[in-house]
Design goal:
It is built from 17 helices and 28 strands. The chain is an alpha+beta fold and 589 residues long. Strands 3-2-4-25-5-26 form a 6-stranded mixed sheet, with helices on both faces. The chain has a 5-stranded antiparallel sheet with strand order 1-16-17-15-14. A 5-stranded mixed sheet has the order 20-21-22-11-23.
């Protein structure tokens, strides 16, 4: 592939982005009480969430919120929908009022840039799904923290957290513990790397000579309750991706986080020159189909993330994934077949986040840049890159696709041509040298987590890919041959608001609603104690004294009981500009 004659720049590609992805986003207009009527209607909202058979935690939180909203005089209904439809409604079609969900997690506070910056208020994906706009109050500190040195960054992050407290575009509920159910008779090392990361699947050690139920250690078999991986393997399909574990095994990135540090991955080495990251790729990199992976593929990837039409005209259609990371990059210049330079918005302190996007093969994805349409998407423009299911994917990762059976299983096989199979002891990734310790990785779908745990106990499965939900932890702890590996995760549960329409466009209304959540009650009754109640979107690893709740955020009632103080609640909503009719229903003044 010929090298680009000119650098690929993001600024030109972003022209015309605003407004491209305006969604339906009108759901609350049909609920808002009309001031033009003689008898104002009761404020009515819908809470979207997963059904209990997929994950009992969010729907139980939603039921608690619906009950306390009822005390506030608000007619609230809970709408459980499948994961695919939930995230499609929220992240793509922007068609929701409130939702209870789990954020995929984060590794650096800069993820808030994509989550809350006004520039993303009309884009799909995890970048600003709330439609929240606050140019000076939120955008300015988001920009400042991105450019600040580590020593100066805390001030900007504190401003962001304070703005979240004041404006409440979303409300953090808790950081859960998510233990995995595992066996240790055929593989060890489950506690060395988290199964939250693809690296966790690569760092296991085979127990030589072991067999169990007639299965040797050449196959790692894990159970999963998310059937979406048997229908779609497109790393850009946000409604199909939760933690990007499978696509992270199929696709490599320039860098990958190892033990809290971002280490070169596809990159053999990199150096910083001011705000320019100069990258040299490893020798001998190939795609799963045998084609050579070059710096031109890396440049193609960043350009595709900026604009999946792969043009410099209108319309521009950014990818709904990895925007926070890809927008760190201002310019990409190919300087040789295996060398490339990224000009970033920041410096080495946290600019390496830009290196953690999946590199895609240009010879496959350049054919997916035409505009298209598909049922279920309320997008003004979409490209084939966003809607292709990408079954039989071609990546460069340590595992490659073998076969899939819808609603049954996905099978991946070891990629013996991957660079991990030949790296030396001096490489930063030496702990992973040799590649996966198995020939085949099989994900087996089950709609029931109880069945997954039983499969682990019986020896039919080696582990659960999902974190065990609180209602199943006792079952897992009582199962012989099963061990639970506990870990705190950054994938927090939260309440999200569609701020595009009244009454949720009113920050005082949102603040009052968020105070109807009794986090201590949820910790004991919903999480069974396996969670840390929280208010901050960057509490994990942050200075605890910065993120303590105050009187503006606390539950309106006796903490731990789940029961709100009705009189105080009504007063709070009156202060937000609403009134109560004779029936005790909340209506617009």
């Amino acid at each position: 592939m010929a090298l680009p004659k000119e650098p690929l720049t993001r600024r030109t590609l972003l022209t015309g982005t605003a407004g491209v992805f305006a969604g339906s986003a009108g759901c609350l207009s049909r609920f808002q009480a009309s001031v033009d009527r003689e008898t104002p209607e009761q404020v009515t909202v819908s809470i979207a969430t997963l059904p209990a058979d997929e994950n009992s935690v969010p729907v139980r939180i939603a039921n608690h919120l619906a009950e306390t909203l009822g005390v506030a005089g608000i007619d609230a209904g809970v709408q459980p929908v499948t994961a695919e439809n939930l995230w499609r409604s929220l992240l793509l079609n922007q068609d929701f009022d409130l939702y209870i969900g789990q954020h995929p997690g984060y590794t650096d506070p800069d993820y808030l840039y994509g989550l809350l910056h006004s520039r993303f208020s009309e884009e799909p994906g995890w970048q600003n799904p709330f439609g929240y706009v606050n140019v000076p109050g939120m955008d300015d500190p988001l920009e400042a923290q991105r450019r600040a040195r580590t020593a100066d960054r805390a001030d900007s992050l504190s401003e962001i957290v304070e703005a979240v407290r004041e404006e409440v575009p979303f409300s953090v509920i808790a950081y859960p513990q998510e233990p995995r159910a595992v066996r240790t008779d055929r593989y060890s090392g489950w506690d060395y790397r988290s199964l939250e990361s693809p690296v966790g699947y690569l760092a296991l050690d085979e127990r030589s000579g072991e067999e169990h139920n007639g299965r040797d250690a050449e196959t790692l078999t894990v159970g999963i309750t998310d059937r979406r991986i048997t229908h779609n393997l497109n790393p850009l399909a946000v409604e199909y991706r939760s933690r990007w574990i499978v696509t992270g095994l199929l696709y490599d990135s320039l860098g990958r986080r190892i033990d809290d540090e971002i280490e070169p991955w596809l990159a053999r080495d990199w150096t910083w020159d001011g705000n320019r990251l100069q990258v040299e790729l490893r020798d001998g990199l190939t795609w799963h189909d045998g084609e050579t992976l070059t710096a031109a593929d890396v440049a193609f990837t960043y350009r595709l993330l900026w604009d999946t039409t792969h043009t410099e005209g209108d319309p521009t259609v950014p990818a709904p994934c990895f925007r926070s990371r890809s927008t760190l990059v201002e310019n990409v210049e190919v300087t040789g077949e295996r060398t490339i330079e990224l000009t970033t918005e920041t410096d080495a302190d946290h600019g390496l986040e830009s290196a953690m996007v999946p590199v895609l093969p240009a010879h496959i994805w350049e054919e997916r840049t035409d505009l298209t349409s598909i049922a279920g998407f309320d997008l003004d423009n979409a490209t084939e890159a966003l809607v292709d299911d990408n079954i039989e994917p071609v990546g460069s990762g340590p595992l490659r696709f073998d076969s899939v059976t819808a609603d049954d299983r996905l099978e991946l096989v070891r990629n013996d041509d991957h660079f991990l199979t030949w790296i030396g002891n001096n490489d930063p990734l030496a702990a992973l040298a040799g590649g996966p310790p198995y020939e085949r990785l099989v994900f087996i779908y089950s709609p029931s987590q109880a069945n997954v745990i039983e499969g682990v106990q019986a020896g039919d499965l080696d582990a659960s890919a999902d974190g065990v939900v609180p209602t199943e932890i006792e079952r897992a702890e009582g199962a012989s041959e099963v061990e639970l590996e506990f870990e705190d995760v950054s994938a927090y549960y939260h309440l999200g608001f569609n701020t595009r329409n009244a009454p949720l466009s009113n920050p005082r209304f949102r603040s009052a609603v968020s105070r109807l959540l009794d986090r201590e009650y949820l910790r004991t009754e919903v999480f069974d104690g396996y969670a840390t109640p929280a208010f901050s979107p960057i509490a994990m690893g942050g200075p605890e004294d910065e993120w303590e709740p105050n009187h503006r955020m606390g539950f309106i009632g006796e903490s731990g009981t789940g029961a709100v103080d009705e009189e105080t609640v009504h007063e709070l909503f009156r202060e937000a500009g609403y009134i109560y009719n004779e029936s005790g229903e909340l209506v617009v003044r």
